[in-house]
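Lab notes, practical 5.
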Amino acid sequence: MKKIEAIIKPSKLDEVKAALSEIGVNGMTVLEVRGFGRTGGKQEIYRGSAYVVDFVPKLKLEIIAKNDQVHQILETIRIAANTNHIGDGKIWVGPIDEVVRIRTGEKGEDAI
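Output from the prediction step:
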């Protein structure tokens, strides 16, 4: 099993969620986060003074998936979240040793 984490623009959430639903992903966690990458934030002007907003609002998606689903989920998120502009986000994958469904006690892939 793998944990897929993706940072996306908030405006792309509905598109990403719909696309993931179409390929059978039936659960994910969404967190509101702030951060910056190559853009380093953005400059804004308030009452004639320029200042830099260092942390840009983003959403972080977390999905636990079976190993054979990972590539399809990555591609689905990449396509649905893409605007062809800087700041579209990142996706990364890490291992998951165990999953337990609290309500039933199911473990491993049965708990996903």
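Observations recorded by the TA: The longest helix spans residues 70-81. The CA atoms of residues 19 and 107 lie 27 Å apart.
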